[in-house]
Amino acid sequence: MEKKITIGIIGAGRIGKLHAENIANNFKYVEIKTISDLYADKIADWAKSLGVKNVCSDYKEIINDPEIDAVLVCSSTNTHSQISYEAAKAGKHIFCEKPIDYDIDRIKKVMEAVDEAGVKFQVGFNRRFDHNFKRVRELVKEGKIGEPHIIKITSRDPEPPPIEYVKVSGGMMLDMTIHDFDMARYLSGSEVTEVYTSAAVLVDPEIGKAGDVDTAVITLKFKNGAIGVIDNSRKAAYGYDQRVEVFGSKGGITVSNDTPSSAVLSTSEGVFSDKPKYFFLERYKDSFIEELRDFFDAVLNDKPTPVTAIDGLKPVIIGLAAMESYKTGKPVKIEE
Amino acid sequence: MEKKITIGIIGAGRIGKLHAENIANNFKYVEIKTISDLYADKIADWAKSLGVKNVCSDYKEIINDPEIDAVLVCSSTNTHSQISYEAAKAGKHIFCEKPIDYDIDRIKKVMEAVDEAGVKFQVGFNRRFDHNFKRVRELVKEGKIGEPHIIKITSRDPEPPPIEYVKVSGGMMLDMTIHDFDMARYLSGSEVTEVYTSAAVLVDPEIGKAGDVDTAVITLKFKNGAIGVIDNSRKAAYGYDQRVEVFGSKGGITVSNDTPSSAVLSTSEGVFSDKPKYFFLERYKDSFIEELRDFFDAVLNDKPTPVTAIDGLKPVIIGLAAMESYKTGKPVKIEE
Amino acid sequence: MEKKITIGIIGAGRIGKLHAENIANNFKYVEIKTISDLYADKIADWAKSLGVKNVCSDYKEIINDPEIDAVLVCSSTNTHSQISYEAAKAGKHIFCEKPIDYDIDRIKKVMEAVDEAGVKFQVGFNRRFDHNFKRVRELVKEGKIGEPHIIKITSRDPEPPPIEYVKVSGGMMLDMTIHDFDMARYLSGSEVTEVYTSAAVLVDPEIGKAGDVDTAVITLKFKNGAIGVIDNSRKAAYGYDQRVEVFGSKGGITVSNDTPSSAVLSTSEGVFSDKPKYFFLERYKDSFIEELRDFFDAVLNDKPTPVTAIDGLKPVIIGLAAMESYKTGKPVKIEE
Amino acid sequence: MEKKITIGIIGAGRIGKLHAENIANNFKYVEIKTISDLYADKIADWAKSLGVKNVCSDYKEIINDPEIDAVLVCSSTNTHSQISYEAAKAGKHIFCEKPIDYDIDRIKKVMEAVDEAGVKFQVGFNRRFDHNFKRVRELVKEGKIGEPHIIKITSRDPEPPPIEYVKVSGGMMLDMTIHDFDMARYLSGSEVTEVYTSAAVLVDPEIGKAGDVDTAVITLKFKNGAIGVIDNSRKAAYGYDQRVEVFGSKGGITVSNDTPSSAVLSTSEGVFSDKPKYFFLERYKDSFIEELRDFFDAVLNDKPTPVTAIDGLKPVIIGLAAMESYKTGKPVKIEE
């Protein structure tokens, strides 16, 4: 197959690098023409090893390049909306890392520019492409459990991020739970209408001093009548805990954690098995490839993207409401 | 071993009969001298087959019998507190089915009488004696998961009760969730300080017409800082769903459902395994024996009972608060 | 229900006591009139506590008692066939512990006497009544896996028996594997036509010195074309390991071990779950009751017993062939 | 990293293509200079898309190319030994697909040439690199189960191969079970000294007519005293069944099948989960990459290869003995 899409990648931090390598190894029909990064010098050798021709420090070179069809916005969070806006204005298709922004108006401005330009826009909610969660969604969609009544999401990190990161992250609800808000919408196929947050600082008092929480149970009401509950912790001693359950009128579906192996060791001490895969790079490895496959398919074949700008907006709205609920101690309604 | 305890059983409905048979088959040192029931005629043959000498229709015969050491109060719910009160006044040890009452003052009156008489009092929260939940509690107590942070309880019935029962049951929170409120206290080793209920009528509109709900997600805050969440449904298509999870600073514990067999059938259609044991009589069979073992042990050896009158009171208080939360749409604090 | 069967129990060792207690607690319609034991004095109090009227040291008192309908032969192995023979001659129904004998001719003599007397005869292969294995057999019978092709049985004890016992036990094949030979016939629904034994002394050299083996893999050929394999060990460090698998033209069935609880503990050290239930008394607790239920049902309602004298004979024949195979190092055919 | 190894691939059938793509996507430091195939025309476009410069129909071009350091022998089975021999003579490092040959003398001739040339030689027993089996081996090596006593391998294909393939495959023992013979040696860390085969035609009579079997239970004795058992079927209705168990003096280890997802669906019909991953390309996907990683590491850093020519020879010897055992109906000893 000939290379049919020419792209630029803006930002070559951990996630930008991951995408670049996944593209080089899995999508022969995609050419990464240019990668921009504030520290362009440092990425030159790595980019060359992937067969990328250009490296630059100014992302505008990518946006102004008429040969480039699509951009991946992998820069720091606070630049996502501005760069996406400019890319849309320049007629580029956009794959934007989550979150688009923490400011709803700025997200809406991106949405307008995208609509106007008629370009494809996809947000990087990669967990929708995970083999387990995708299977749950399929079974729900096929009606195997009838109408969803209760949606449960367990999402716990193996370790809290550095305290410096906590301070600038926008808080656990917008940094970590935002994935779960997206998952709740994805699994239920419905919109959240109310949120109630019960949260605490139980893992590390420093997180509390930084104005954030590290443990939370968040109740959601959905438009279709279902009730959801997310439980989060910044520190699960046994590793990355990512499970969901959807319960409905005709049955229920659960998924458990993936493990490095299925080995079970039985001794006089007890029966031992593997801990979950350590963290998101191991656990969601394939999902990062699958989300790009769908994005490139949408661009090449003029299909809708599977995770739209609206899907980027809604979890931010829920996250802000969840924070408000935590601060006021009351449930918070979400306008449509 | 000689028969060392002589007891009377008040009420021979489903649960009274179960206790009587469990005692006859498992506790050679316990003599059931008398069983009272409003329909004494109907139980005479059955009682005889168990070796029980007397059957009567008036429970006062039991309470006034100086040979009887202890009574099992298995009559209809609205008589529990009055009979327990009279039994305490008569100096009998008391095993009382849950709930003691739905009226807090009447429970407190029983508690006072019990204290004054210095008799043993145990409430029939049998799930504490279940092999799975007991193991979870042990592991928590042993500090295996450190400080508890999140307590999760899933409790779903296979079928809603008859609508006539729903109308007089006191509502799902007091009839069904009350077991889960007890479990939450038992597993966490702490008291509930706040409750928030999100509930709905999703199973059967008739339940809604009867003023009750059939689906709920209830968030609890505990004195020790932990957060709890209970999810309930009146109808799990696949059967009785009884799982818990306790997550803490050093790890987590989960228990899954018990099944009739461990058989797994793999065919071209898929991989099939057993549904959970059908309902509480199958699922909690052994726990009904174990709770009595501990009660008789407390009586014989003058030990504290494992589920006290306070343990009977607290879940009622939480249940009433959970209902208030549902009605007001707000979290409700629980005074100590 | 009135007491409809009057029985005597011959031998009150571990298994005789177990049966007596199971009967007293579960079968109100069965009266244990007499228990005989060489050490009658030592069992008197225990027998009385069960409501048994007579205790004697000579089993002939039971066999000659015209009021007794059925006997349970629970005496030492070397007396099973003689007592069964006498009981049949006396017209008693017989429940005989396994094995009937290690001598095929003596088993056949029992079978003739049983046929002649027209009494019921059941052998104590209790594992057929286990919830797991019964479920496997049902699924096989229902044709869920089509024609059986491969039958696999894992059977490992937690500890070897005392070396004194090993010396008189008849060898592992007749003492331990005999249960698995029965299970192989039960699960496959077919007869064994050839056996090949690969065995070794890997657990304890003392067992080898006593002329026995402690580890074995035994291959079976069945009349219906299927192939079977049993693996045994006298010592599984993690406890009693009892699993089976039946694989056929349309699929396969496996059963795993039962555990005391379903609790799973996850910590930074790993994921821990329960070891199997410790040994046969815990693991097969209910099966001992179920086999008697069927025996009493056969006696009361003139039905065939579920485990006949032929079922007692065949595993002994296979066991002797398995030993011959081990000694000669060659497969051994089994005549029909 | 610069490209440090230049290789040629001989044969671009299914496995040759798989290796070429895995190398292009995962090993930047490996350059595939040339691919030879009898139908060179048909692979030209595909090879170009991977960045391969040359395509040819004569493998000798690769063997005679002084720039090429190593070759992958992926041609038809009957050419493996001859090509490997020539490659060794030309001083190339060799990765040879299994089996090297079915003729022991021809394998030995290759071994001599390899030794003489001092080149690296690795056989494509990819399953040793599977996450599950590798974990079992590690645990055995770490002594977690003490001395191995019983090794069990279940290996069942989802569908028999075409009957035309069966006729030329060398028979199930050399075509399919050969992987299990390798696994037996790998897991036990010991050599097989005796083999006994019980086999049958139960899946498809056409396989029998072609002189082969489709179902087998094969018992192995190991030099270290352990006993092994392999069970095979050409058709597991539920898919590819690949499990192992190692049982030893201190415990046991089992691994179960990998599945596409961990989703469990519970309905009124039962509890359903995923079938195993369909066949070897899905199931052992990563192992094909890992075996090459180790081969390239051995070449680059002058380390021993993890699967040597001896490891290629031994399973063929065992396979031939297993066939002899099937034909004679007797156990067959294996000389060292």
Supply database-style keywords.
Dihydrodipicolinate Reductase, domain 2, Rossmann fold, 38% helix, six-stranded parallel beta sheet, alpha/beta, oxidoreductase (chains A, B, C, D), GFO_IDH_MocA-like_dom (chains A, B, C, D), seven-stranded mixed beta sheet, 2 domains
Strand order of the largest sheet of chain A: 12-11-7-10-9-8-15
How far apart the termini of chain A lie comes to 44 Å
- The CATH topology annotation of the largest domain in chain A reads as Dihydrodipicolinate Reductase, domain 2
Strand percent estimate of chain A: 15-25%
Q: What is the CATH architecture term of the largest domain in chain A?
A: 2-Layer Sandwich
Mean pLDDT of chain A: 95
User: Which overall shape of chain A is indicated by the principal axes computed on the Cα atoms?
Assistant: globular
Number of helices of chain A: 13
> SS-based structural class of chain A?
alpha/beta
Q: Order of helices and strands of chain A, N to C? A: EHEHEHEHEHEHEHHHEHEEEEEEHHHE
Name the helicity range of chain A.
Answer: 25-40%
- Biggest interface in this structure? C-D, 38 and 37 residues
- Strands of chain A, total number: 15
Family (chains A, B, C, D): Belongs to the Gfo/Idh/MocA family.
Protein name (chains A, B, C, D): Inositol 2-dehydrogenase
Keywords (chains A, B, C, D): Oxidoreductase
Pfam family, one (chains A, B, C, D): GFO_IDH_MocA_C3
